[in-house]
Amino acid sequence: AQTVTQSQPEMSVQEAETVTLSCTYDTSESDYYLFWYKQPPSRQMILVIRQEAYKQQNATENRFSVNFQKAAKSFSLKISDSQLGDAAMYFCAYSGGDDKIIFGKGTRLHILP
Amino acid sequence: GAVVSQHPSRVICKSGTSVKIECRSLDFQATTMFWYRQFPKQSLMLMATSNEGSKATYEQGVEKDKFLINHASLTLSTLTVTSAHPEDSSFYICSAFWDRRKAEAFFGQGTRLTVV
Q: pLDDT tens digits for B14-53?
């Protein structure tokens, strides 16, 4: 079975600084997707970034980028120029052949003004 | 853009009663929807996969007789919590793939269930 591990329950970063959230996963599949979702206090799940496993190039979305290391099964999220609105729970997630999206335990990100 | 709407957003029910939660894909058809449960300050736990026109597939440890899922149309899946008890109190979230090939999923706003 696939698993997603986030080892950082909480992190803090100064406003305008850069922070990296870690995620590792385990799978025997070769074709899958990885995601980072943001869950603000409203609890609405918001897709931050998506990575297709067969693409070697790391995905980027404005201030958000990932470091995808397929062999190491690592998928970290870098947030540049952190803003107060980035404060939220961040979930790393995996979706493979059965289409299910499996989530890690999450990392709560605090932005310090 | 694609939207998944969940209703109600909050519900309080008495112990022993049943409550139904609806999940609708508003501008796309979803043959498959997913139901998650989220305890406070915890992750989303997949409960079941809802398949249009067929039985839902439940994850291990999820009681199918407690959590009844019906996916009668391509835009609506319902989760009914039967004979609810206080331990069923939780936040329930549904999701649906807008584009399965790209694994683009959208999530409902969630339903906070409180059983008293």
A: 999 999 999 999 988 988 899 999 998 899 999 999 988 8
Beta bridge partners, B114, equal B12
Distances (CA, A) of A41 to A35, A44, A67: 20, 8, 26
Chain A residues in contact with B102 by the CB 8 A cut-off are 50
On chain B, the residues whose CB falls within 8 A of the CB of A54 are none
* DSSP β-ladder status, A33-39 and B44-51: unpaired
Q: Cis bond leading into B8, ω under 30°? A: yes
- Widest CA span of chain A, in angstroms? 42
Q: pLDDT tens across B53-92, in order?
A: 889 999 999 999 999 999 989 999 999 999 999 999 999 9
DSSP lists the bridge partners of residue B7 as B22
A84 touching B (Cβ < 8 Å): no
Torsion A91-B44-B40-B5 (CA) sign: positive
Rounded to a whole number of angstroms, the CA Rg of chain A reads 13
Distance from C-alpha of B65 to C-alpha of B81, rounded to nearest angstrom: 9
